[in-house]
Amino acid sequence: MKSMKAPLIICHTCFAIALLLLAACTNEGQIYAKQHPELNPAQRKILATGKIPDGTAVAGLTRDQVRMAVGTDPYTFDRVGSEDVWIFSHKKAVAVDPTFANTPADSTLDKAHGYTETESEQKTPRMDVDVKTTVFFDGNIATHARTTEEKAQ
Asked: pLDDT tens across 34-54, in order?
């Protein structure tokens, strides 16, 4: 009987460790999105992925929700007309088609958002790109965003 308890204890311990590891993989935005069913699908995606797309998908999120989604404060605060503007920036590596110099291929290697390269992708020529996301606010509420990419200097 004693030998049956040891495997059971080991199994329960492994299960508890697996749950802790799974919980460590979720970010604050993912947890928040699950707790707020009133958010629309585009807003949930922004909170879960930390990526703010070009356009109005961000519309309706508060400043705190945008900050939570991105995971950091903006590097620049500005004002355009009557709207406050937050500008976020990060670098990403873009695969370059070796047959055409300085031409990005279709795949994007964005480590800032949890992408892990395969061994063959590590050997693919690439260039760094600066990604700038500008979020516009009317008061405390986001109205839209613009995302631009340019070759890093």
From this structure: 999 999 999 999 999 999 999
Region of 20 on the Ramachandran plot (φ > 0 left; ψ -120 to 50 alpha; else beta): alpha
For residue 8, give the H/E element and its range.
helix 2-24
Chain segment 80-100, per-residue pLDDT in tens: 999 999 999 988 887 776 665
User: Model's pTM, two decimal places?
Assistant: 0.66
